[in-house]
Amino acid sequence: MENNIFICVLCGIHKDGKTSRMNQEMIKTAWIHKNNGSGKNEQRTILQGGFKNPKGETEAMSAYCFAKTRYPFSELSFVLEKKSFRTHNNALEGLDIISKRFPKIGVISLVGHPIHMARVALCYEIANRLFHDNRYTIIKFPSKEIYDPLVYRQEYWVDDQIFAAREKKVMILYRFLLFRPWARLGFWVLKNIWPSHKQ
Fold first, then answer.
1. CATH class name, domain 4-193
2. What angle, 0 to 180 degrees and rounded to 10, lies between the N-to-C axes of helices 87-101 and 183-193?
3. What are the strands, taking DSSP E only, across the chain?
4. 175, exposed or middle or buried, with CB in 10 Å at 0-12, 13-18, 19+?
5. What is the distance, to the nearest Å, from the Cα of residue 185 to the centroid of all Cα atoms in its chain?
6. Are 45 and 77 in contact (CB under 8 A)?
7. Half-sphere exposure (CA, 13 Å, Cβ side) for 195?
């Protein structure tokens, strides 16, 4: 598994900078799977999330602060991707980091919110095919869902029914825009209608 990398596609940060319970669960899920319980594997894990709280702290930054305290053996194994907070940009930025910094990687293990995982996988798989010649094998590890009422400005993450209904509508748009014949154009459209930076 030395050619494997984990990516936690994060969801949420508290107003005071603490990472969401869901993000904590994602880090735990990645840690368990990549270490098989040993706590000694220094495989890289990308913490991905650029949504900011009022202090300018990102999801990736807050998740890292939690991870290095909770999992001290892994402090040097984390890479922060703080630019993107849209799913299509998560995929583009994540694959760009891997291709440039970790050329020997062949397997990507995605860890994410169980409801959001379908969209995460769709974006990564299509970006992998379009821009990286299907170089990577992509594995999905949906994390356990954890209710958290304190997520800043992303309340839909914590209500299953609202989130599932919203995700169903968004997936219709994503599947249409990323349909094979015009997927490259679809990524361009998504990047422009839903850019990474709005703060």
1. alpha beta
2. 110
3. 4-9, 45-48, 78-81, 107-112, 137-142
4. middle
5. 22
6. yes
7. 4
If residue 25 lies in a helix (H) or strand (E), which one and from where to where? helix 21-35
**Is 113 exposed, middle or buried (CB count within 10 Å of its CB: 0-12, 13-18, 19+)?**
buried
Q: 63: alpha, beta or left, given left = phi > 0 and alpha = psi -120 to 50?
A: alpha
pLDDT 10s digits, 76-123: 578 999 999 899 999 999 999 999 999 999 999 999 999 999 999 999
By CB neighbour count within 10 A (0-12 exposed, 13-18 middle, 19+ buried), where does 93 fall?
buried
Query: Among candidates 153, 91, 151, which has minimal Cα distance to 117?
Result: 91
- Domain edges within the chain: 4-193
State both tokens at 113.
Answer: 């919110």
